[in-house]
Write a structure and sequence with these properties.
Elements (H helix, E strand, L loop, with lengths): L1 H8 L3 E10 L9 E12 L3 E11 L10 H7 L13 H19 L3 E6 L2 H14 L7 E8 H9 L4 H7 L12 H22 L5
Parallel strand pairs: 1-4, 4-5
Antiparallel strand pairs: 1-2, 2-3
Helix pairs in contact: 5-7
Length: about 200
Amino acid sequence: MASKLVCKRFRGFLPVVIDVETAGFNSETDALLEIAAIFLDYSSETGWRTNHSVAHHVVPFLGSNIEQSALDFNNIDPFHPFRRAVEEKAAITDIFQIVHDELEKFNCTRAILVGHNPTFDLAFVKAASSRVRYKKFPFHHFSTFDTAALSGVAFGQTVLARAVVSAGHQWDQTEAHSAIYDAQKTADLFCTIVNKWDQYNGGVE
């Protein structure tokens, strides 16, 4: 029953929370440095909740641009020997395969990217997918769920840190700007907002 509700809740779309850390703002030229995905689940007892995650440090693609100002902001050293980074193709293929598995599990038609100001994340994910020539892009090509907009309505906050705290979750600034941390907090925020709405609206059944 829960799996049917996951599919039904968003008109056949499966929400998947994505966060990326990059070496600039241009998705076509600037390196993708980190990518994380949080997968969600639903139960009638707890509502929407985080289920499992996958994250990768990514080797800058050949010829990519790396802006020092971006590295100063996210504190990433792309060439640090202990990053255990993987090639962009391996990172994208791994995450997309799990997305496809989740789509089959919940009988959904397509994934929809959940993010905080997600047009940025979607642009980098699409650009990386194109570079590695991934054949079956699992996400909707332009529709997203934006937790900045949702939390602006729900809590009057659009900055991720402030929205997360307003939603009743902890925020550790020292962990911020890591793809897996920001994705997890975005997922917590999304689930809180959707659960509050579903409770107000009488549930999802």
